[in-house]
Write a structure and sequence with these properties.
Layout (H helix, E strand, L loop, with lengths): L3 H6 L18 H21 L7 H10 L4 H4 L4 H4 L3 H20 L6 H8 L6 H23 L6 H12 L4 H9 L14
Helix pairs in contact: 2-3, 2-8, 2-10, 3-8, 6-7, 8-9
């Protein structure tokens, strides 16, 4: 018997944005779902609209497991994680150890298959698109909080927006133009 998925199920208890006041709490399991949706969209836009050749399935699998180490490490706030090179390096090493530990919970026959998505190729297009989707998810969270009157997320929105706009990725620009404005609407304003 394996407790791999029982551990991953605990992602629903790990709160994101823990040092910021939020109108609505977000956990890493729901964040993972949104990142997977956005990753799928970005890859399909890249392949369909811009003639790319991103492996959609691989990118979505990267998204599904991109926060898995946090069931062991917790969610370290971005300002802390990237405050200096030593902390960032140490945290990445800790994440790697957490992924190893999680992988060891799998039955032996499945370890290699899962290892390839839990330890993504960080130089791949698939990883790049997943990381863009991760940023998009954070941006949408900022928009949601601001729409609810929470100014706590103002600076985060500006920083993430500048980062997204600074990327030279046509599929990302397409997503930002085509889909992001609708996240600022109320339910009554959305046309079904």
């Amino acid at each position: 018997m394996s407790n791999f998925y029982a551990f991953l199920d605990r992602m629903k208890y790990i709160r994101r944005w823990c040092i910021m006041r939020s109108v609505r709490d977000e956990n890493i399991l729901e964040h993972t779902g949104q990142v997977a949706l956005f990753t799928h969209a970005l890859c399909e836009i890249e392949n369909t609209v811009f003639g790319g050749n991103v492996n959609v399935e691989r990118a979505v699998l990267y998204a599904l497991y991109h926060e898995s180490s946090e069931v062991i490490t917790g969610d370290l706030p971005t300002p802390v994680k990237y405050s200096n090179g030593a902390i960032e390096s140490s945290f990445h090493a800790l994440e790697d150890q957490a992924v190893e530990r999680l992988s060891s919970l799998l039955p032996e026959a499945l370890r290699n298959a899962f290892s390839s998505v839990m330890n993504p190729d960080k130089d791949s297009k698939e990883y790049l698109f997943m990381k863009c989707a991760d940023k998009l998810s954070a941006y949408v969270k900022c928009l949601e909080e601001l729409r609810s009157g929470n100014r706590e997320f103002s600076k985060a929105k500006e920083t993430i927006e500048a980062e997204l706009n600074g990327k030279n990725i046509p599929a990302l620009a397409y997503f930002m133009k085509e889909f992001i404005p609708e996240f600022q609407l109320t339910l009554d304003e959305l046309n079904v």
